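Table S7 (text form). Paired inputs.
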Amino acid sequence: MKKRLSVFVLAMTIPFAAACGNEESAESHENHSHTAANGDLQEVTASAETLPGFLDDKDDNMRAIYLAAAKHAGVLEQMPCYCGCGESAGHQSNVNCFIAEQNGEEITWDDHGTRCGVCLEIAATAAVMTEESKSPAEIRTLIDETYSEGYAEPTPTPLPEA
């Protein structure tokens, strides 16, 4: 219950942003990071329980959203992102704003979400609604309705099965 409440608090406290920042970072953390072609910093960790070093200076809410993104990656793969990352970074869904790749337990984290309120809001909303036993189709409907006007074109994410 505590984790569910903390994710709910996250959804309510993330500032509303219309688009992602264009800040690029080439910093490295213990030689485990690299900069993707789109400028996003990526870092591999052994599991979802080990967050990347680029989150070390971020607040607890952001770290919690990254953990929730890993926990609910299957749902986030079915949610579009409306920040413009489909066009600018080649993302296919909201999960790509947080996770570039998962190979077994190993995760390649992406720092795109650290610079984008829209990405964070969508992930937090999807995580909260998943914890409330909402279906991916119900979550997708809310996400699409919420971001259909005044935001960038969504990522090319297929609709979830009903």
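Next pair, protein 2 of 2.
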Amino acid sequence: MLQRRILLRELTMNALGVLLVLLSIVLTIQFVRLFGQAAVGKLALDAVLTTIAFQLLQALPVFLSITLFISVLMSFMRAWRDHEMHVWFAAGVSPLSWFRPVLWFLVPMIVVITALSFWMTPWAMRLSEKFEAQLQLRDDLGLATPGVFKVARGGDVVYFIENLVGLGNKASRVFVDSQQEGSRGVMVSAYASQTTEKNGDKFLSLDKGQRYEEINGLEYRLISFDRYSVRIKAKEALDPPAAMRAIPTKQLYQSNNISDKAELHWRIGVPISALVLALLAIPLASFNPRSGRGWNLVIALLVYLVYVNSLTIGQALMVKGKLSVALGLWPIHGVAILILIWLMAKMYGGLPAFISHLTQKEESV
């Protein structure tokens, strides 16, 4: 009980720390990138937080898998460094007995990763695609780039702005060429803003400007105004074709398409790889003081990269038809499990001693 409480507490604290660091790094990078796009008009300001939320949901299974691997690795490396493992071994605690408290920590997280991989991530992908399609149809002034002519989605309004005022839908020194009800007009204005009526119609409102209106092709009329509104027509948002990662898991299971089956194997492999990698971290954390403390960290990193990249390559080979869909990614998981058994047997001094220990445990039960 003491062994389990100490390990669970340390694993939980390490996992929280690793997850917070990963989220801080990723969120900072995303905030800087997306707010930079909003500052130059490539993305609406009110869409930044929503975009970050969708991206976070899509990446969360990977973040949690990395968190589990690093937290287990850190906990056991610390125990080996402080010679705590030798004390536990002297007290009769075998290496295999550490799997039970680690599994108590891993199982709830694996359930969360499974739910994210099977349901939450595809759902977030579908919402993200619809949201991006709606953003493509917006004609906010905040999406305009200063110094560049922009054609409104309706096609009957072309406007040019010299400067943006802040990050909102306001601009200064605006040029507008519009075609409405058979009448063509050119307007210049000191300021412009965008307003939306209750029925959803959008208007480009110009303040303190002049309108040069064509009368019969040869004559023009000059009109000075304090405020002038031009209606911007919008297109209907169409449902974009679903990406592979956005297809519901049930639909993938019922499909006979090779690409769908490859995606299904990938989603199944996400929680399996998270569990296997976290268990691999237990023997990978052990080190020989004579060989240096950094080598096991390098080897653990290589094992993680090879395992994850093998799953990615295996999925690509399935899509190309070079890997059996019936086998899928299971051979890769099988090799990882065999490596785990080999590493654990090495801690016992060999495979016969490891099998003997398992047999003794089974007989004692």
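The first helix runs from residue 2 to 39.
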